[in-house]
Design brief:
It is built from four helices and seven strands; from the N terminus they run βββαβααβββα. The chain is of the alpha+beta class.
C-alpha cells in the first residue's frame, strides 16, 4: 500500500492504491482547507472548483494521477495566482488518486511576493 506523508502535519498514512487524496486526508484528520473553507458547504466538497484543497506534491509526482480537465481549468484559469510559480507541484487533493508513495505539503501559501512570481522570463546577459 502506498504511503502518503503530510509534511506540514508530520503525519504518514498508508492508503489503498487508487484512493482519492482528499478522502484519505479527511479520514486521517488532516485538514486540507484553510480558514473557514474547512466547513462543509463553504468549499466545493471535492468537485475541483474551489481550489482550497490544493497541495504541493514535494516527492512522488509520478505516483499521483495526471491532472484532468477540471483541475487544469481550476488551477490554470480560475485560481491561477494560487499556483503561479509552482505549477509543476501544485495539485488539487480532491482530483488526485494515489498510486505510489508521495510527500505533500498542505495549505501552500501564494508566492506573489517571492522570487518565483517576479522572476524575469529571460535572465540578463
Amino acid at each position: 500500500m502506498p504511503k502518503v506523508t503530510f509534511v506540514t502535519e508530520k503525519v504518514e498514512i498508508e492508503v489503498p492504491t487508487g484512493s482519492n487524496l482528499r478522502d484519505e486526508a479527511r479520514k486521517a484528520a488532516v485538514e486540507l482547507h484553510p480558514w473557514i473553507f474547512k466547513y462543509p458547504g463553504l468549499n466545493c466538497m471535492g468537485h475541483g472548483m474551489c481550489a482550497t484543497c490544493r497541495v504541493l506534491v514535494k516527492e512522488g509526482k509520478d505516483n499521483v494521477s495526471k491532472p484532468g480537465l477540471i483541475e487544469k481549468a481550476s488551477l490554470g484559469v480560475l485560481h491561477v495566482f494560487e499556483s503561479l510559480g509552482m505549477e509543476d507541484e501544485m495539485r488539487l487533493a480532491c482530483q488526485c488518486t494515489v498510486t505510489g508513495d508521495i510527500k505533500v505539503e498542505t495549505k501552500p501559501e501564494m508566492n506573489i511576493s517571492g522570487d518565483i512570481f517576479w522572476q524575469k522570463p529571460y535572465p540578463n546577459k
